[in-house]
Amino acid sequence: MEVSEEIGISQAQVSRLEKNALKILENDAICKAVQDKYKYVFVDEYQDVNEVQEKIISLVSGKDNRFMVGDIKQSIYRFRHCDPEIFISKSKEFSSEQ
Known about the structure:
flat, single chain, mainly alpha
């Protein structure tokens, strides 16, 4: 059972929540306040993020305080618009910086 089912909301409602969070974070003052609140941002199952989630992660974290874990072979949520290419692209980006 998924978290959204456990708390009684649909996937469409989760999607709207994500989009609304993104709109709020596009306000520079709010975004800065959220960034200042967190020393580190940890993301598990990064292979299953979608574009909106990636934008939220990027807004609330800096490049140097983000820790992402994932396994591209375990990507299973494409039906929810999760994009494993985000994981692959980010992996290449960070690999080239070393």
